[in-house]
Amino acid sequence: MAIIVNMPRLSDTMEEGTVASWLKKVGDKIEEGDILAEIETDKATMEFESFNEGTLLHIGVQEGETTMVDELLAIIGDEGEDISALLNPTSDTEEKPEETEATIEPAAPATIIPEGVIVVTMPRLSDTMEEGTVASWLKQVGDVIEEGDILAEIETDKATMEFESFNEGTLLFVGLLEGDSAKVDDLLAIIGPAGTDVSAVAANFSKTVPAVEAAPKETPKVTLPVIKETVIAEAATVAVPVPNSTGRLHISPLARKMADDKGIDLNQLIGSGENGRIIKRDVENYKPVVGANISSAAKFVPTGQEDFEEIKNSQMRKTIAKRLGESKFTAPHYYLNVEFDMDNAMAFRAQYNTVPDTKISFNDIIVKACALALREHPQVNSQWFADRMKLNHHVHVGVAVAVDDGLVVPVVRFANEQSLPQIGTAVRDFAGRARNKKLTPQEMDGSTFTVSNLGMFGIESFTSIINQPNSAILSVGAIIQKPVVKNGQIVVGNTIKLTLACDHRTVDGATGAQFLQTLKGYVENPVTMLV
After folding, report:
1. Are residues 136 and 52 located together in one domain of the fold?
2. How far is CA 522 from CA 94, 211, 404, 423, 425, in A?
3. In the chain, N or C: fewer CB atoms in 10 Å?
4. Active site includes 504?
5. Catalytic residue at 508?
6. Residue 115 gets which letter from DSSP?
7. Tens of pLDDT, residues 327-372
8. Could you report the per-residue pLDDT of 175-228, keeping only the tens digit for each?
9. Active-site residue, from 70, 260, 265, 504
């Protein structure tokens, strides 16, 4: 079925784009992730990748030509598919007056945006982002904004990222409070000349978001705030500060940083945000308590009292739930369990790390061994799509990293071509930046295989869910010292258990077993990886 590809909005202020060059031509096969064209925006020339696959059937904007955002850019579909109806939609002149009446009749007076005023919308900070959450505001209403200033930290489905302003002026309006979420392209903020009244612009930004006054009486639960000042006033009269008695802090990143800078004990703060969340103004308004301690007093509760807290799902947690659910219930998983001798690997690592300025881990050895084995077994390095299977001849190994809010998988690209120290440096860098939420979406895309290691937590063996569209994931346990039989004698040995989860649509049992045999050769004799 043909898919219309429209001119994308590649920056928050982009209204039209120019095709600098096409990287594909009509008739070419398009894979998901292929670069279709280079688009010149009001900020820069950026690569535009396809989120669909098929054959490029039509190009609507030639190189050097310009069109508005959301106008026809190209059409992708099945080879030979008839797209004449999409290119020449039926135009019955007798029906036009009726359509015109239907359009004009309900039209309301347009809101005029004052000169110099710029509406900033929720940006799309990753290719899969559908909505974002304001983790913290770095600027507040009334602040002077320079181009390049960081306005806010936005939590996406993949990471929390700094969002910088492409404009300058005064921050006149904030459409979301810290912790609130909105769809991509919904109102985020308004910037313009100081003192400009933008209440009408904020109230009429989207027809789908009515002002509070316009909400019908039958739906009193719908209270969509329009102007931030109004929300603050309501919060001041309605919100009741909630002492932190659960032992778990609900605090915005900005509030935490401010409290650390001021040397304030976080347990002394009382949150006035949603569900008792500590936000910026709580730190600003904090005064040391003399005498009775509110937090201590709040701990005296009846024995056996039921207690719980509700934590709003983050964008990352929502995405993890969605993708792993899809993988588990669409890909027929099966598991292969093996146990490898690690005596040689331990001796190899100890000797390797005697080289000055060199430090490799057992995980680095596993990643390198997987990469080399995948080159010999491309079926395990494959990806499943509805109409075909993709055998990858490049090896990009994803390494699962646990973070506070879930799991991210940065990618070691061309891992088979990298040395052990290079892999070790890359993985440590990824892990550190992942925990600080500084990874970019590009660093987490494109894996062809995944390694998940819980050995450092003492887990002997476990199974993982495949990171689709990959065909397999390797679960790595801890190295255990135990009695083993060697040359007919019981001796003390070191072993490790690994579990390979495979998608049966692409990897048959024998294929997975052969891959593990090759992997065993590299892990139990790691010097062969240097040959």
Report:
1. no
2. 75, 65, 33, 16, 21
3. C
4. yes
5. yes
6. T
7. 888 899 999 999 999 999 999 999 999 999 889 999 999 999 999 9
8. 999 988 889 889 999 999 999 988 888 888 753 333 333 333 333 333 333 333
9. 504
